[in-house]
Amino acid sequence: MLKSHRLFQSEKVLTVVAFLFGAYHLLVVSGVISVSTMEMRLTHLMLAFVLVFARKPIAPSLATNRIARGIDLVLIAAGVVASIWLLSRWKAIAFSGGMTNDTDYLAGIVIVALVFEAARRGVGLILAGITLLFFLYPFVSPYLPGILESRGYGFERVVAFLTTDTQGIYGIPVGVAATYIIVFTIFGALLSRLGAGEFFFEISFRLTRGMRAASAKSAVLFSALIGMVSGSAAGNVAVTGTLTIPLMKREGYAPHQAAAVEAVASTGGQIMPPVMGAAAFIMAEVVGVSYTEIMATGLLPALLFFATAFIVVHLRAQRSGIEPQTEPSSDPRSTGRVLFDGMPFIITFGLLVGLMLIGYSPFKASLWAMGAMIVSVCLWKRRIERDLFRQICGSIVDGANGVVTISAACAAAGIIAGVLGMTGLGSKIAVLIDMGSGGSLMIALVLTMVVSIILGMGLPTTAAYLILATVVAPALVKMGVPVLTAHFFVFYFGCISTITPPVALAAYVAGGIAKADINKSGWTAAAYAAPSFLLPFAFCFGPGLLLQGGWVANIAAVITGFLGVAAIAIAVIGVIHDRLPVLARVAAGLAGVLLLFQDMTSAAAGIAVMAMLWIFSHLRLRKNAY
Fold first, then answer.
1. Which pLDDT score is estimated for 8?
2. Which residue of 267, 388, 425, 440 has the fewest C-beta atoms within 10 A of its own C-beta?
3. Closest to 176 measured CA to CA, from 421, 405, 460, 406
4. Helical segments of 424-517, H only
5. Separation CA 438–CA 30 (nearest Å)
6. What is the pLDDT of residue 590?
């Protein structure tokens, strides 16, 4: 009984810490509390350390081990003490031009060590291992061959740079986590607690009812709506897959097919404006453009991604003989009533996007959107329920708990970015890709794709983009690719890595829910998303796909883009009116490639090929009917 009471008290303490963590950041970004940039980042990471070490055990098997929990308390205390010391010293260090003392050095060692452990616990060994490789580079670089050789740096200098300069651990990634990301995790938690998930699922179900592959199409819509604020494709699968995968299996999809559809749709949520899995906020800061421009640039590729998903699930159902379902909703309300009851969420998203379009910062827009959602929920229910305050507080707690692993990833990315800036390794990687490509942009893009997928495997969207933006994107910029386009290129492949075997994390989570072979689920998901592996190449050669061309180029990109992804989807599934022979599928794939690559001659050829395949399939169906 005593043990249970102690655990309960401990959980209450952590809940209070999480609430204070989230409330503090809301007050800072709203302007109620005024602190400097460095103070906010130091405080943010200090509180993130407390929560990640308290909630993430050393190992799952040691979750209740007294010695392990004692180590956790030591780490928490070390993080708090070191952070408070740096808070008291950062101004003196900055004003002295970077002069540090022995205590600063010791505090820095503690912070670096805690970042590694927080990244390992919060995200996994992959991120911690990648970060460690970069951290070791300044010390081993004098012994490396060729272009990787460097004069090297002392341990004290590296630690001081990473912990007392805004180009290291307390750099842009942690700064974004402390402003944009935490506000949007609270925003997403509030949406969930107030019932937005149920509303979006019901609307998705009703919009697709009566269609072929209705459950799969509702899964695509639902996952898109939830996924764009979740920040993790695998996390989105875990939330939405428990609802959508059983529905797809019941409709007739094989378990691995249902898992693949859910994994693809959840991955697409990470590239869908307005939130784009939180990585877009970091992109805006790194590239130096407005967030509105990031949203506008990402819109068409995201729509093409989901168009692919819709076409794939439709053709898959057609090939498997799955007939349209007319099963009514279990909700007795009319569709009009559902829309009316869900109007607070419609208003919230409309206000969020509208405010950002007129120039509000994303976190200011989200604060107003949250306020509007709370007020409109009360107005629609015509009362202020007792539970509302608890839901708001719970959302702040959930959002704070949800950001700590992202903060750990951001801090680790700060080590990588710091080493790259300090040693010039970033430019060396760019040179290596340039040398490997022999000056060919296409080869450079292929090499960048491979590196992006490898580095992004097993990582959440934000962590993947943080690494790729600092390590890989500069190589494309050096090759002449526009900065924003280069960042979108690596961002897309960082996202797609979650459905790319051998570490297709989103597909593996979906496969577990579907009770399917996880490797089969992963390869099927990669096949279903095939057009998305071509899209980043296409928008590097055709700016219209990012809506960065003239009006004619942009309109042409919309038309040829949708036709192109449809053609590739047909090639993957092998169906138009009826099953296609292998050569016809190859022709459809070739037509899709021709359509995507934004040249009028190739587009005309692609359209001609698809027209012939359409006629061929139609005549073949009529012949078989007789």
1. 41
2. 440
3. 406
4. 425-437, 441-456, 461-471, 473-478, 483-496, 505-514
5. 50
6. 93
Q: Are 500 and 519 in contact (CB under 8 A)?
A: no
Closest CA to 98 of 35, 46, 168: 168
State the Cα angle at 11 between 76 and 173, rounded to 5°: 50
Cβ pair 122, 409 in contact under 8 A: yes
Contact between 418 and 135 under an 8 Å Cβ cutoff? The reply is no
Q: What is the pLDDT of residues 179-223, one digit of tens each?
A: 877 887 788 788 878 887 778 777 777 777 767 777 778 778 777
Alpha carbon distance 451, 474 (integer Å)? 13
Q: Report in angstroms the alpha-carbon separations of 430 from 119, 147, 148.
A: 26, 11, 11
Residues with Cβ within 8 Å of residue 431, at least 6 apart in sequence: 147, 478
How confident is the model at residue 436, as a pLDDT?
85
Q: How far apart are CA 578 and CA 621, in angstroms?
A: 6
Tell me if the bond preceding 57 is cis, omega within 30° of 0: no
Tokens of 150: 């460097």
Distance (Å, whole) CA 392 – CA 352: 18
For residues 543 and 484, the answer to whether their CB atoms sit within 8 Å is no
Q: Residue 300's closest CA among 606, 561, 592?
A: 561
Positions of the chain with pLDDT under 50: 1-9
CA 153 to chain centre: 34
Q: Compute the residue count for the chain.
A: 626
- Given the structure tokens 């408070």, which residue do they identify? 84
DSSP string, 518-535: HHHHHHHHHHHTHHHHHH
Q: What is the largest CA-CA distance in the chain?
A: 89
> Which pLDDT score, from 0 to 100, does residue 386 have?
76
For residue 343, the tally of other CB atoms under 10 A from its CB is 16
pLDDT score for 497: 81
CA distances from 25 to 119, 177, 191, 280, 465 (A): 22, 10, 18, 20, 23
Q: Rounded to whole angstroms, how far apart are CA atoms 206 and 329?
A: 7
Report how far apart the first and last C-alpha atoms of the chain are (Å, whole number).
77
Q: What's the token pair of residue 580? A: 């296609």
| pLDDT confidence of residue 228 | 63
The token duo for 6 is: 């102690």
Q: Considering just the CA atoms, what is the radius of gyration of the chain in Å?
A: 25
What was the pLDDT predicted at 20? 93
Residue with token string 């097919």: 257
- The pTM assigned to this predicted structure is 0.72
User: What amino acid is encoded at 267 in this protein?
Assistant: T
Alpha carbon distance 3, 9 (integer Å): 10
Which amino acid is present at 537?
A: F
Place of tokens 């933006």: 469
